[in-house]
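Predict the holo structure. Ligand: adenosine-5'-triphosphate.
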Amino acid sequence: MTTPLRSRSTTRAPVKVQAPGKINIHLGVGGATAEGYHELATVFQALNLGETLTLIPGGTGSIIVQGRYADSAVPADETNLARRAIDLLIAALEDERDVDVLRGIDIVIDKQVPVAGGMGGGSADAAAALVGAAHLVGGVAEDVLHDCAVAVGADVAFLLRGGTAVGHGRGERLSPVLTRGTFHWVMATSARQLPTPDVYARFDELNPDPAPAEIPAGVLTALAAGDPDALAASAANDLTEAAVSFMPEIAEVMEAGRAAGALLPLLSGSGPTIGFLARDARHALDLAVLLQATRGVNEALRATGPAPGAQVVDIVG
Ligand code: ATP
């Protein structure tokens, strides 16, 4: 199926694209496969805290990272996940289509998601780049975009779609989840970064024979009912112990959030960002104020989910 994004012809006007960050409302981790990936059973939720990319055709291939979480850890070369995504799309299309407009694109990343924080910021950049590049070439089949997304990283396919979804395999085998209403989160970021591979390696040491990953039925029921109290009673993240072993302050911040009245403190992905589930918008505001003053919290950012997946928001010029 071809996504009908305007006409089939290419366009050279810069395009602005937004993509959400995410929280894993539940993260069940099983054993590692022969390829070294862990079998996951996760529930992703896209958050209205995300990245904005501007793709500017006809440039020199530069990458500029700006915004709240601009960071020297974000590469400006072909290893940047946004650039990789576009390069993979070029490779997938170039035998059949004119993709010259995608060569030498300049990318401006407005980074509003912490780097290596477990919220999928780099993956959001890749998802945004794919949607923007698809627009520039006049539309790309959904399965081609999905394959490019998965080739960049496990979370990218979800961030293309957004919403709330169950992810199996590495998190790329997705099915949508029925939710009611809006869930309110306070995302407590850390001044430190925690590389995802390190956390999985520690998980393996701590769990030499893990049970198969699964999603508790209560999580899906609570999401369908829009019931944050019920969600708090059933969701968990299997990477918590491993992340805390690197950064004991994660446990302290989780405890502080619980004491401040959060329904559920939840490590976001592999951390160190912690998501705190609130009852409603007012409760989230109260929690954010308390958490902002907590030792070990860099910033307490309010976010809601589910949010839409990567989408073109403006054609510049
Ligand atoms: P996840 O939750 O998907 O595991 P994360 O949020 O913990 O990811 P990211 O911020 O996505 O981590 O990035 C992790 C690493 O990827 C960074 O340390 C950086 O070296 C590299 N990277 C490559 N491209 C990007 C990008 N566009 N934005 C951020 N990091 C990038």
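The longest helix spans residues 121-136. The two ends are 29 Å apart (CA to CA).
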